[in-house]
Amino acid sequence: MRVLQRLPFHTRQPLALGAIGLSAALAVGWGLLPSTQKQGAVDWFADVCSSVSRPMFMSAPAPAGSSEASRPVTSSKILSCEPLPHVPGKSITTQLVDFPPLAHTPAHRHPGSVSVVVLEGTVRSQIAGSPAANYGKSQTFFEPPGALHLFAENPDPAVHAKIMAVYVTEENCGPLLTFEK
Fold this sequence. Notes:
This protein is about 25% helix and about 35% strand.
């Protein structure tokens, strides 16, 4: 405010009128916005205004007219499961996971350690206590045993993402994960 007070009156007046005009236009636009889209607009403003303390667009909504439950799901294929001879009762399991565009996995846990390598596309992931992060091709992330994996998703609306997950599991390949209720 003090910066504005230092400006000559003939400069302050157009700025004030511009701010009033912008405020009026925003108020009219808000009034015309369907109520179903108002929460999305609030989330967008919150993301823009808070991007210093957390990743921008962390609350990006699911595609219009859908909920997380109706988003595409991942598909996976176990590639191998081998006993670890130097760690009795444990095995190492490799799994290929495909994330179609905008696919989402809900909150879950892995009973063992998991190391993930992104093979294609981008995967957005968040472990409880850490900020959400985007991982691109050749990037990796680690999940400690029992950690709450809040979500994993493909944020891209057109391109598939693929990861290879390597688990240290109980003998005989499992279990690999449990979903939160």
